[in-house]
Structures are given as structure tokens and as C-alpha cells.
UniProtKB/TrEMBL annotation:
The keyword Flavoprotein does not apply. It comes from the Bacteria. The keyword Transferase does not apply. The lineage of its organism: Bacteria, Pseudomonadati, Pseudomonadota, Gammaproteobacteria, Aeromonadales. Keywords: DNA integration, DNA recombination, DNA-binding. Residues 227-422 form the Tyr recombinase domain. One of its GO terms (molecular function) is DNA binding. Belongs to the 'phage' integrase family. One of its GO terms (biological process) is DNA integration. Gene3D superfamilies: 1.10.150.130, Integrase, DNA-binding domain (3.30.160.390), Intergrase catalytic core (1.10.443.10). Transmembrane segments: none annotated. This is Integrase. InterPro entries: DNA_brk_join_enz (IPR011010), Integrase-like_cat_sf (IPR013762), Integrase_catalytic (IPR002104), Integrase_DNA-bd_sf (IPR038488), Integrase_DNA_bind_dom (IPR025166), Integrase_recombinase_N (IPR010998), Phage_Integrase (IPR050808).
Length: 485
């Protein structure tokens, strides 16, 4: 290795290697070296052996770091190694990790989850933390205190938080939201807990204080927003389905294909209980009209789901195929046929308005609706018709509990799910007045048959039915009559 007195002229004249890196030693400070890379970059580093370990620590790049500055810094590093025995690289790493920012910790948390966390969840974490705690993102995680967490959670609950959007415009919360405050708290808690365990020094000691989100639990400040229970009531199913049909017909007539697709998607959500993303993300390669089944590959819990195509669904799928089956990969495409419809809010607003009849002698109010109401409606009707707990969980694709051994042995395909799915569909149509109950239909047939019979035949039929109900027949009745005579 070449050794010489580092000077500006000497360093400037160092040749640039074609491959690899060339290293030179300073004669004034033992252990100070300069490494020349093929790119022409010249970096100062310190070399030292301590405890049988070889230590190399980069201290700066020339000419940003002067030769005199490099010598002073090298002496400081060499003294630290000699007195403490610490590797300056490890010291620097610990310092950097101890000062990890919220943004860096968030990305490390997401990366550690890999495929176990969905893209929608990743985006939700980035949006919630990036909006409601925007000014914290570049701050060290250890600077987030219990007091700051407590104050920010309260501010979000009361709708007093604002942030700068991607266009540079200042945005304020449209309304107070206790649910969003708890969502923000859970996201921050997940990232901080991960970081608290992940970032450690060489002795395994954690580098961060205890999670500050603990204050929300110890001081009982979680809002604990009640789970939503809204759904379409059974007696409102007729109004709702009629309103969907009206908006769909108007959309078809005016060639508003996206609006018509959304109407069909909302009907599929109601008659299957599928989540919004599962419905509108459905592609034709997962629909088998001939076999009367379809399947969802990417579900919320990660398990694929195969469902039967009932009569109502078959009508919808055939209508969708005639519209876009050969020009779009999606069953419910948006304006761009290569992408699915993604925002049904405007269409839902029209449908809700259409649920009010005109004239309205009973003063009926609009049927409030959110996409997840369809799922709750499906589950409620399914429970009422008695499809069974395990069947219902499979239809709605709910995750099995680890301690439920029985459920682990059950496997239902579209064929086994067909009968319960048809029972649920028929119950919905009956509530909507679009299908007659079997006993009601039979009563109507009997009434029509008896109506045209002579009175004599009606009496004879009545006596025969009465005799059967009492466990006798015509011969017994006749013989009894003869004996009495």
C-alpha cells in the first residue's frame, strides 16, 4: 500500500482505478487512509484493530472534508476506539436508529410485513399517519411523547386537525371523527411497538422509550366507537331494489354504463354479502357462467372464496357480459374499461333519493345506505332463514378461530353453498314482494280451484278433508252411517 503525506495536490493527482478501489495511507496520522473509487470519489476512512477485530470507519469525502479536518476527525475516532473499545460504525448505527423518524419507522414496519399486509392497508397507514400527524413524519420517533399523543388523539376526535395535500393546498377535517382518531392511534401504536422491539444496540437493549400510545389505554381515552349495525330492513327491501332498478334503467337508457355497472355491483353485494372491493374487483376470468359459480382470489382475510351463481346473480352476470364481457377484464368496469368502477357514492345518492315514492302518502323517508350495509343485510337474512353458523361464516368468508377444531375439518365448495345461497336469495325476494312464499302460492291455487266449484262439490270436498283430518275414510264413515241407520 502506498503511503505519503496527504496534500491537496497529492490527492488531486491520485489516479482513478478502472475497477475496484485503491487505498492510500497518510504518513502523518497512523490509521488515516483515503480510498479512491472508479467513480472518482475519494473518501477518508480510519483503520484500526481492536480486540482481534478489524475496524474500518468512513469519516468523510474529499474535498468536502479537508485534509486537516480529516486528520482531526481521525484522531477523535482513534481515541474513542482506544478508550471505549466501541466500534464507531456501531455507534453511528445506534445513533441513527435511536433517531429514526416516524416516516422511516413506518416504511420499515410495512416492509417487515411483506405480503401479509395488503396494498390498501399500506396506503391507509400512510394516509392516516401522514395526514393526521404530518409534521411528525420527519421527526425522531423518540420525540413523540405521551402528552403529544394524548393531545393529537383528542384533536382528531374533535375535528381540529389540518394538513397539506399533494397539491400544496391546506386541508382541514370535514367533521369530528372519533373513529378516525382511534384508527390513527392504532396505526401509531403498531408502528411504535414494532420499532421499540426492532431498533436495538449491540447488547440487545432497546433504543426507544416505551410506546407513548400507552397513555390512551392507561387514561382510558380510546373512543371505542360502537360497531355499525345499519342495514336495509326487511320491509324496506322492496323499496331499495325498486330504486336500484329505476336508477339502472335510467342509466341504461342514457348510456351511462358506469352507473349501470355500479347498480349491478350493489345488487351483487346485497345477494352475496361480499365486500365492496371484492365485488368491484371481480374479473371475468373468475366467473364460470356454465358451471354457475365464481370465486374471489384476494379477500380481506387472505382465503379465496368460491360462491354459487344463483338465478338473480345469473341475470346480472349475463347482462354484464352482454355489455362488457368482450371489451373489459372487469365485470363492473369504470369509465376506463381497463379499470374497475371504484367510487359508487354518486350512484348511491341517486338510489337513496329514488327510495322515496312519488306520491308519498305514508311520508316514507329515504333509505340510508353505505356499501357495508349490504353485507350486514345479507348476514341478517341468512341468520333468519337458519343456514347454520359454519355455512354463514363460509358464505361471508369470515376467518376461522384457531381453537375451533371442528371448523378446521369443514370445507364447502360452491355446490354445497348453492342451497343456502338460494334460500337467502328467496327470502330477500319474498321480503321485497318479488317472490311468493311457497305456502302463499299454494293457498292461491286452492282458492282459485275451489272458487269455480258448485256448492255441492264444495261440501263434499269439505267433508272428505274433515274425515282425513280425524283419521277416518269414506268407507268407515259410510259403514258407521249404515249401522246407525
Amino acid at each position: 500500500m502506498d503511503k505519503f503525506n496527504f496534500t491537496k495536490r497529492a490527492l488531486a493527482d491520485l489516479p482513478v482505478p478502472e475497477t475496484g478501489r485503491k487505498e492510500y495511507a497518510d504518513t502523518k496520522v497512523s490509521g488515516l487512509r483515503v480510498r479512491v473509487a472508479p467513480s472518482g470519489r475519494k473518501a477518508f476512512c480510519v483503520i484500526r484493530k481492536k480486540g482481534g477485530k478489524f475496524i474500518r470507519s468512513t469519516i468523510g469525502v474529499w474535498p468536502d472534508l479537508t485534509i486537516d479536518g480529516a486528520r482531526r476527525k481521525a484522531l477523535d475516532v482513534l481515541q474513542e476506539i482506544a478508550t471505549t473499545g466501541n466500534n464507531p460504525n456501531e455507534t453511528r448505527r445506534v445513533h441513527e436508529q435511536a433517531n429514526v423518524t416516524l416516516s422511516e419507522a413506518l416504511e420499515e414496519y410495512i416492509a417487515s410485513r411483506g405480503d401479509r399486509i395488503k396494498e390498501t392497508t399500506r396506503n391507509q397507514y400512510r394516509a392516516v399517519l401522514g395526514n393526521y400527524s404530518q409534521e411528525w413524519m420527519r421527526q425522531p420517533l423518540r420525540h413523540i411523547t405521551r402528552e403529544r399523543v394524548q393531545q393529537r388523539h383528542k384533536a382528531i376526535s374533535e375535528g381540529r386537525v389540518s394538513w397539506t395535500n399533494a397539491e400544496g393546498r391546506r386541508v382541514e377535517m370535514r367533521k369530528a371523527s372519533k373513529a378516525q382518531a382511534d384508527l390513527w392511534g392504532r396505526a401509531l401504536r403498531a408502528v411504535y411497538r414494532f420499532s421499540h422491539d426492532h431498533y436495538r444496540d449491540e447488547d440487545g437493549q432497546t433504543l426507544l422509550p416505551d410506546p407513548p400510545t400507552m397513555v390512551l389505554s392507561t387514561k382510558r381515552q380510546w373512543n371505542h366507537v360502537s360497531r355499525k349495525t345499519s342495514r336495509i330492513r326487511n320491509h324496506d327491501l322492496g323499496r331499495w331494489l325498486a330504486a336500484v332498478e329505476l336508477v339502472r334503467s335510467e342509466a341504461i337508457a342514457s348510456r351511462e354504463d358506469t352507473r349501470a355497472a355500479i347498480c349491478d355491483g350493489l345488487d351483487v353485494a346485497l345477494f352475496t354479502g361480499l365486500r365492496r372491493s371484492e365485488v368491484f374487483g371481480l374479473t371475468w376470468d373468475r366467473v364460470n357462467l356454465g358451471g354457475r359459480y365464481f370465486w374471489i382470489e384476494e379477500t380481506k382475510n387472505g382465503d379465496p372464496l368460491e360462491l354459487p351463481i344463483t338465478d338473480t346473480l345469473l341475470t346480472i352476470f349475463r347482462r354484464r357480459w352482454n355489455v362488457c364481457g368482450t371489451i373489459s377484464p372487469y365485470v363492473f368496469p369504470g369509465p376506463d374499461m381497463a379499470k374497475p368502477a371504484h367510487d359508487p357514492r354518486k350512484t348511491i345518492t341517486r338510489i337513496v333519493a329514488a327510495t322515496v315514492p312519488n306520491p308519498n302518502p305514508d311520508g316514507l323517508k329515504p333509505i340510508a345506505f353505505a356499501c357495508h350495509d349490504a353485507r350486514r343485510t345479507f348476514g341478517s337474512v341468512a341468520e333468519l332463514v337458519g343456514v347454520g353458523t359454519y355455512i354463514l361464516k363460509r358464505l361471508m368468508n369470515h376467518k376461522s378461530k384457531r381453537d375451533d377444531v371442528t371448523e378446521g375439518y369443514l370445507s364447502f365448495s360452491a355446490d354445497e353453498l348453492r342451497d343456502p345461497a338460494e334460500r337467502i336469495e328467496r327470502a330477500m325476494l319474498e321480503h321485497a314482494g318479488l317472490a311468493q312464499k311457497p305456502d302463499a302460492a299454494l293457498d292461491s291455487q286452492l282458492a282459485a280451484l275451489v272458487e269455480g266449484m258448485p256448492d255441492k262439490d264444495k261440501r263434499r270436498l269439505l267433508f272428505e278433508l274433515a274425515a282425513k283430518l280425524h283419521g277416518t275414510d269414506d268407507d268407515t264413515s259410510a259403514s258407521n252411517g249404515s249401522e246407525q241407520g
